[in-house]
From TrEMBL:
Cofactor note: Binds 1 Mg(2+) ion per subunit. May bind a second metal ion at a regulatory site, or after substrate binding.
EC number: 3.1.26.4
Protein name, UniProt field: Ribonuclease H
Needed cofactors: Mg(2+)
Length: 226
């Protein structure tokens, strides 16, 4: 039987050791600068909470995990290894200059990474998909990822099984037309299969710091082609 996990919250609404992910999530979800980590050993959790945690086996690179099959978010409740925000922008959609960005918070290593690039001629949807693709391929395989996006197009393809339907029908829509951005969807499908991803929709331009940062970076990349 797998050891029961506990969750240490170093920075959140409340700090301490929590015995369920639901309790932990209530303290950290949406909390700026939240720091938390899951453990199977309560003693190690206490050490980490008190800033004297030493990784087992002498530290070094995290041990690679076998890539899991994708699961709907409701079927797993593990603490995330990464919290990722992504966004895409196109200044003259479609076929105008665009940019994409991802803000990646590594909950295991305690690092924040920003990825961003642009293209001279693209669409808003292609930039949204590219941002998610680059973020998922950046993360260590087998990771639990909370991915926040303001794109219903991206989120619904996975959470409402649009992507599965397109594949089953030979990459055509319910209307019988070819699926747009098939090249990116195929790459995203492969990247998704290597991770455990929970998609979260966030409304854009309402002051969510990480989403606003992604928007700023994506637009800056697009402006390079103006």
């Amino acid at each position: 039987m797998a050891a029961k996990k506990v969750y240490a919250v170093r920075n959140g609404r409340k700090t301490g050791i929590f015995t369920t992910w639901a309790e932990c999530k209530a303290q950290v979800d949406g909390f700026p600068g939240a720091r938390y980590k899951g453990f199977t050993d309560p003693n190690e959790a206490n050490k980490w909470l008190n800033l004297d945690y030493v990784p087992p086996y002498g530290g070094g690179a995290p041990k690679k995990q076998a890539a899991p099959q994708p699961e709907p978010a409701a079927q797993f409740d593990d603490a995330p290894d990464y919290v990722i925000y992504t966004d895409g922008s196109c200044l003259r959609n479609p076929d105008g200059p665009g940019g994409w960005a991802a803000v990646i918070a590594d909950q295991i290593e305690g690092r924040l990474t920003e990825l961003h690039e642009g293209e001279a001629s693209t669409t808003n949807n292609r930039m949204e998909l590219t941002a998610a693709l680059r973020a998922l391929t950046f993360a260590r395989p087998g990771s639990v990822i909370d991915l926040y996006t303001d794109s219903q197009y991206l989120k619904n393809a996975f959470t409402k099984n649009w992507l599965a339907g397109w594949k089953r029908k030979g990459w055509v829509t319910a209307a019988g037309t070819p699926v747009k951005n098939q090249d990116l969807w195929q790459q995203l499908d492969a990247a998704f299969a290597r991770q455990k991803v929970r998609f979260h929709w966030v409304k854009g331009h309402v002051g969510v710091a990480q989403n606003e940062r992604c928007d700023e970076l994506a637009k800056a990349e697009a402006m390079k082609f103006m």
